[in-house]
Amino acid sequence: MIPNEPPLSGNQKRKIRSASRLFALQALFQMEQTGQTIKSIVREFSDHRFGASYDEGAYAEGDIDMVHKIVDDAVNHQASIDQMTDRALVAKWPIGRIDPTLRALFRAAGAELLHGDAPPKVVIAEYVDLTAAFFPDGKEAKFANGVLDHMAREARPEAF
After folding, report:
1. Domain of 51?
2. Contacts of 27 by beta carbon, 8 Å cutoff, 6+ apart
């Protein structure tokens, strides 16, 4: 926050957290596709995406610390997150066979469910909304909701 600026409202904070989740999902997808490191991907997002304007529009502001934490936790705990995701998937569809966008989404959400402090229902709702944005026909959002609900119940059973 810049000195002498008014504090952010609750709605502004929610928008920043939502944008940060989107950036984390995109970063994980990009890392898988390009082999970039956590450090380089977080720097790229911080320098070139947060609040940047392009011909197609403007990127939202995000919280670089939140993005870094989600990405770092997703990468450092990928094996356990993938195993948790596999247990939520149908046996014939392990995580390696699903769409790379959904894979990145499950990894980001899994990182938050295992190592974040947001309530599981908030994490589920946010990532289901992101799924709907990437896959507007709705069936992937229903699929993601079921997988994320299973993951959340495993990661934080006390919340249910």
Report:
1. 12-159
2. 41, 42, 45, 67, 71
Q: pLDDT value at position 110? A: 98
Going by DSSP bridges, is the β-strand pair 53-54/57-58 parallel, antiparallel, or unpaired?
antiparallel
Provide the pLDDT for residue 128: 98
Confidence tier at 55 by pLDDT (50, 70, 90) = low
**Residue 5 domain-assigned?**
no
Residue that the structure tokens 């769409």 belong to: 99
Q: How many whole angstroms separate alpha carbon 6 and alpha carbon 123? A: 27
Assess if residue 113 is contained within a domain. yes
Q: Are 135 and 141 contacting, i.e. CB atoms less than 8 angstroms apart?
A: yes
CATH code (residue 43): 1.10.940.10
Q: Based on the structure, what is the number of domains in the chain?
A: 1
Supply 2's token pair: 């810049």
pLDDT digits (tens, 9 = 90+) for 88-103: 997 777 788 899 999 9
The two tokens of residue 14 are 């929610």
Q: What contacts 96, CB < 8 A, 6 or more positions away?
A: 103
